[in-house]
Design goal:
alpha/beta; TIM Barrel; two-stranded antiparallel ribbon; globular; iron-sulfur cluster binding; BchE-like
């Protein structure tokens, strides 16, 4: 049995995936809203140990999905990732999908040829936290990437055969910058056109709250649930992609779960948000919400 180095995180859609912990922590680990990997020092695990753990799980030939952790395993050199993919393919004959977290900086360090090799070897999906399309907010949260970097990274991955699941955080601009946040995020998503788009709601812990809010010189006034639903409604309204984007807001932090395809389901999604704002349908209670 694999013994994971905790804490261990994975996207909601990877609930039934085998998790292969190729790195520990996050190579950036400076985002002011996030405490996920603050207890870890970024480490690249020896490839021999990773391969041995994959081999150990090879008796489970029914495995169809694998998620490569921790926070930004795309930081690994392309040749190491290729070895992992080759081992996965040899051990799991029914494997259909291999996914990974990525940040724009480490994704952009990969050449188009390397990304195409990874795609051909079985890497099918990467998760990329845009968080916001606003350069003002991206600088405040110390994301380490701006609008142009996200756009280039998503385009580069998808041009070389790897689907992208991007994330926007509602509430990230507070009440003062919410429109800037949503308008620029919608513009970026419309231009980059990731395969999937999801939203989650800003939830600050005591460990991150002061650092995060301190970057807002004008003061940070958090959005209410209704304010974040209004943000999500505007985001859905403004996204105008040239091809379909699969949209989800099923993260546990969100007050309202949504699913559909943009632009086709725009009206249905907006109508559901309006119904929630009027109190006609229930939202997720606070005790059921979290990161």
């Amino acid at each position: 049995m694999i013994c994971y180095d905790e804490p261990l995180y994975r996207p909601p859609s990877e609930a039934n995936s085998l998790i292969v912990q190729a790195t520990l922590g996050c190579s950036h680990n400076l985002c002011t809203f996030c405490e996920m990997y603050k207890s870890k020092t970024y480490t690249e695990r020896p490839i021999e140990k990773i391969e041995a753990e994959i081999a150990e799980m090879s008796e489970n030939v029914s495995i169809r999905r694998v998620f490569i952790a921790d926070g930004d395993a795309m930081a690994l050199p392309a040749d190491v990732l290729l070895r992992i993919l080759e081992k996965l393919k040899s051990c799991f004959p029914k494997l259909q999908r291999v996914s990974i977290y990525a940040n724009p900086g480490n994704l952009l360090k990969k050449t188009p040829e390397e990304l195409k090799q990874l795609s051909d070897a079985g890497m099918t999906l990467l998760y990329l936290g845009i968080e916001s399309g606003s350069d003002i907010i991206l600088k405040k949260i110390n994301k380490g990437a701006l609008y142009v970097h996200h756009l280039e990274a998503i385009t580069k991955a998808m041009d070389n055969g790897i689907d992208v699941s991007a994330t926007i955080i509602t509430g990230l601009g507070g009440k003062s910058l919410w429109r800037e946040h949503i308008e620029q995020s919608a513009k970026l998503v419309s231009e980059a056109v990731p395969t999937f788009l999801s939203t989650l709601s800003l939830m600050l812990s005591p460990a991150t709250s002061d650092t995060f809010t301190g970057a807002f010189e004008e003061g940070f006034e958090p959005q209410t649930d209704s304010g974040m639903l209004e943000e999500e409604k505007l985001l859905i309204e403004l996204i105008r992609p040239p091809r379909n984007i699969i949209f989800r807001s099923n993260h546990a932090s969100n007050a309202l779960a949504l699913r559909g395809t943009l632009p086709g389901d725009r009206k249905k999604l907006m109508d559901k948000i309006d119904a929630a704002l009027r109190g006609e349908i229930s939202t997720r209670p606070d005790w059921m919400r979290g990161l």
